[in-house]
From TrEMBL:
One Pfam family named in its UniProt record: F-box
Protein name stated in the entry: F-box domain-containing protein
Listed SUPFAM superfamilies: F-box domain (SSF81383)
Species, as recorded: Nepenthes gracilis (Slender pitcher plant)
Classification via InterPro entries: F-box-like_dom_sf, F-box_dom, PP2-like
The F-box domain, residue ranges: 19-49
Amino acid sequence: MGARLSGSVAPPLKSRPGLDDLPESCIALIFAQMDPPDIGRFAVMNRAFCLASLADFVWESKLPSNYKFLVHKLFGEIPERLSKKDIYVRLCRPVRFDAGTKEIWLEKSSGKMCMAISWKGLRITGIDDRRYWSHLPTEESRFHAVAYLHQVWWLEVSGELEFSFPAGSSSVFFRLLVGKPTKRHGHRACDLDHVHGWDTKPVRFRLSTVNNQHEISHCYFLMEVGKWGYYHAGDFTVDDPNKPVKINFSMNQIDCTHTKGGLCLDSVIICPSELREKLVEW
């Protein structure tokens, strides 16, 4: 008689562990060390990664240290009632406040807070006299308009701001264009016909805070003709992000021996000092 085959079935081979087997808490710990764009890319890989990417401690580490103040100031909401990811996403979109004269956003790759103050939120000597200044609509400004200087003897622009800034060092810049932005044959151009007076004396930039931080610098505008430039007014340091800091900043050229003109004033930018190299991207 032939041998009888056994009817028993061999046990299935155990599959190797995969990414789906990682504990959600471990994935979240890894995400906490990543930049926000990388977290977003990994979150779509599977359900475990998606859930881990929602953990509050992951996104709290990406938010600026003053995020609770920003939620109150910009949204009028209680931070504890919002998820940290929701706060991050909402702050990454530019938010206007103070009658639309100021704008705040987070730089996405770092989560650092940046601010722009429109020329409309500054004190400009003679701004309402059309002989000296005009308002120029342009797509080259995030506020869709700039102040164009025709000609003055006395240039003076200043601003004041009290705000709870993130801890660390921040830099203040004036965004300016020597020339008048135009379009020729559908392409961006710059009219330099009325540029004058900037090679005689330098423009003075000044920054000060109520806690006795001061900085003064001087610059000749004709070094950057025809393109937008970021002119450094100074740096200031914040130790406590929960305590408002009052800063004053200005630029002036008040030598009345000559006129000057052909200048566009867009805004004042305040950003973490470590991001100053990224200004041209904004």
